[in-house]
C-alpha cells in the first residue's frame, strides 16, 4: 500500500462511519449543526494522529497482556489535553460538545486503530493512517450534519447557504429521532450503491470469463483439427513408403 | 422526595440514554439482534453503571477535589483518565467475583462484561453525575434509572429486530440501517414522554 492509498483509504473505501460503523455515538449526537460536527472532527483527527504516533513508537515496550489499558491511558492523556485546550480557546465548541469531548476516550475508532494498525506498523505509516481515518471520520460527520442542518433548518449558518425558510423546514431532523433516521437512510443508500456496483463488476467479470472460455475452446478445436490433419499426412506418408 | 421521583422518571424515559442522549449506541446496535443477548447486556450494564457511578462520585469528591486528603490540590482535570481506569478495574474485579460466587449469573453476563469497559454509556453517566453536580443520593438514583432506561430500550428493541428479520427489506438496508430507522420511530415515541413531566 502506498502512502497516498494509506491516507485516502479512510475517505470512501474504509469510511469509519458509513462502512465500519465505528464511533456511532458522536455521529448521532454532535451532527445537529455543521459547525459543531466539524469541530468534533478536528478534535478526533488530532487525538487519533497523536495517539497513533505515541502507540506505534512504544509498541515494542508494551507487554501484550496489558496493551489495552496502556492504550487507553495514552488516549486519555491526549483527550485531557484537547478538553483543556477547547475549554481555554474555543469555549462555544466546548459547551456544545459537552460530555462528548471526554467520551472521545471510549470512541471505538481510536482504540480500534491503535489495536489494528498502530500496534504493528511504523511511526511514519501510523501518522498517515491516523490522519486519513480521522479525516474520513470528519467527512462522515460533516456529510451527516450537512444533510441534517440543511433540510432541518433550511440553511447552513457556517456556509451562508439558504434553500428555504426555517418555518417550512423539516425541523424534526435536528432533533434526536432525525439523527437516527438520517444516519440509517444514508448508510442504507451507500450500501445499496455499493451492492449495485459489486453486481455490475461481477457481471463484467462473468462476461470476461465467458469470452476467455470461448477463445480457449476455439483454440482447442483448431489445435485438434491441425493434429488430425497431421496424423492424416503421416498416415499417407506411411502408406507411400510402404 | 418528589425531586428524586422526577429525576428518576426523567432519566428513565424523557432523557433516555440511548434515544435522547446517544450514549451506548455501539452496544445498542451490536447485541440487540437476539432477545436473551439483549437482556444479558442490559443487566450487566445496570450493575456496572450503578456501581461505577457511586464509586467515581466518591473518588471525585474525596480524592480528586481539593480536600485535606491531598493537601488541597485540585486534581479534577485528571477525571477522564481516573474514571476510565476505575471502570476498567471494576469491570475486571466484578467479572472475577461473579465467576467465583455465582456461576449461573456468570454464564448469563460473563461475555458482556469485558465489552462494557468501552461502552460509552458507563463513562458518560460517571461524567454526567459530576457535570450536573449531584449529591450522593441523586447519583445513585440517576445512575440506576439511566441504566434501567438503557436495559428497557435495548430489550424492547430486540423484539423489534427479531420481527424485522422476517420482513422483506431491500438488500442494502438489511441489518443496521433498517435498525436505525426503527430506532428513529422509537425515539419519536419517547419524545412524547416530555409532556408528562
Based on CA atoms alone, the radius of gyration of chain B comes out at 18 Å
**DSSP E strands of chain A, number:** 2
Helix/sheet category of chain A: mainly alpha
Protein chain pair with the most extensive contact, residues per chain: A-B, 44 and 42 residues
Number of helices of chain A: 8
Radius of gyration of chain A: 29 Å
Q: Note the gap between the termini of chain A.
A: 69 Å
Task: Work out the helix count of chain B.
Answer: 9
Number of domains of chain B: 1
The residue fraction in helices of chain B comes out at: over 70%
Which stretches of chain B are low in confidence, meaning pLDDT under 50 for 5 or more residues running?
none
- Indicate how many domains the architecture of chain A comprises: 1
Can I get a quick summary?
The complex is a heterodimer of chains A (242) and B (197). Chain A is 71% helix and 2% strand. Chain A has 242 residues and is mostly helical.
Explain this structure to me?
The complex is a heterodimer of chains A (242) and B (197). Chain A has one domain. In chain A, helix 3 crosses helix 4, helix 3 runs antiparallel to helix 7 and helix 4 crosses helix 5. Chain A starts with a helix and ends with a helix. Chain A is elongated and about 110 Å long. Chain A is mainly α and 242 residues long. In chain A, 71% of the residues lie in helices and 2% in strands. Chain B is mainly alpha-helical and 197 residues long. Chain B has one domain. Chain B is built from nine helices and no strands. In chain B, helix 8 packs across helix 9. The radius of gyration of chain B is 18 Å and the shape is globular. The model of chain B has no long low-confidence stretch (mean pLDDT 87).
Amino acid at each position: 500500500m502506498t502512502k497516498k492509498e494509506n491516507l485516502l483509504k479512510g475517505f470512501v473505501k474504509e469510511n469509519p462511519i458509513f462502512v465500519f460503523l465505528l464511533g456511532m455515538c458522536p455521529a448521532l449526537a454532535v451532527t445537529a449543526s455543521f459547525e459543531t460536527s466539524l469541530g468534533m472532527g478536528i478534535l478526533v483527527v488530532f487525538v487519533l494522529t497523536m495517539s497513533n504516533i505515541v502507540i506505534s513508537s512504544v509498541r515494542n515496550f508494551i507487554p501484550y497482556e496489558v496493551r489495552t489499558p496502556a492504550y487507553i491511558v495514552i488516549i486519555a492523556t491526549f483527550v485531557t489535553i484537547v478538553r483543556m485546550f477547547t475549554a481555554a480557546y474555543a469555549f462555544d465548541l466546548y459547551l456544545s460538545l459537552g460530555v462528548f469531548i471526554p467520551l472521545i476516550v471510549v470512541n471505538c475508532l481510536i482504540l480500534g486503530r491503535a489495536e489494528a494498525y498502530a500496534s504493528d506498523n511504523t511511526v511514519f505509516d501510523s501518522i498517515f493512517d491516523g490522519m486519513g481515518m480521522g479525516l474520513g471520520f470528519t467527512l462522515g460527520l460533516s456529510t451527516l450534519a450537512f444533510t441534517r442542518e440543511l433540510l432541518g433548518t433550511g440553511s447552513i449558518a457556517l456556509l451562508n447557504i439558504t434553500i428555504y425558510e426555517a418555518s417550512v423546514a423539516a425541523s424534526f431532523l435536528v432533533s434526536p429521532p432525525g439523527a437516527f433516521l438520517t444516519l440509517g437512510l444514508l448508510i442504507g443508500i451507500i450500501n445499496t450503491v455499493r451492492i449495485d456496483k459489486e453486481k455490475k463488476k461481477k457481471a463484467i467479470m462473468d462476461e470476461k470469463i465467458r469470452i476467455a472460455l470461448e477463445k480457449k475452446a476455439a483454440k482447442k478445436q483448431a489445435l485438434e483439427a491441425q493434429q488430425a490433419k497431421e496424423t492424416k499426412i503421416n498416415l499417407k506418408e506411411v502408406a507411400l513408403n510402404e | 422526595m418528589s425531586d428524586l421521583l422526577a429525576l428518576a422518571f426523567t432519566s428513565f424515559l424523557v432523557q433516555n440514554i440511548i434515544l435522547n442522549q446517544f450514549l451506548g449506541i455501539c452496544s445498542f446496535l451490536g447485541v440487540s439482534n437476539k432477545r436473551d443477548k439483549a437482556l444479558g447486556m442490559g443487566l450487566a450494564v445496570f450493575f456496572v453503571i450503578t456501581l461505577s457511578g457511586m464509586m467515581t462520585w466518591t473518588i471525585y469528591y474525596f480524592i480528586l477535589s481539593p480536600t485535606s486528603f491531598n493537601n488541597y490540590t485540585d486534581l479534577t482535570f485528571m477525571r477522564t483518565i481516573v474514571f476510565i481506569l476505575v471502570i476498567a478495574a471494576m469491570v475486571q474485579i466484578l467479572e472475577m467475583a461473579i465467576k467465583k460466587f455465582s456461576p449461573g449469573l456468570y454464564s448469563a453476563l460473563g461475555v458482556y462484561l469485558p465489552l462494557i469497559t468501552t461502552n460509552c454509556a458507563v463513562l458518560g453517566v460517571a461524567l454526567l453525575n459530576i457535570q450536573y453536580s449531584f449529591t450522593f443520593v441523586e447519583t445513585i438514583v440517576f445512575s440506576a434509572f439511566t441504566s434501567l432506561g438503557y436495559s428497557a430500550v435495548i430489550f424492547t428493541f430486540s423484539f423489534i429486530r427479531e420481527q424485522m428479520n422476517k420482513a422483506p427489506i431491500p438488500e442494502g438496508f438489511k441489518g443496521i440501517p433498517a435498525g436505525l430507522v426503527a430506532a428513529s420511530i422509537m425515539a419519536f415515541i419517547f419524545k412524547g414522554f416530555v409532556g408528562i413531566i
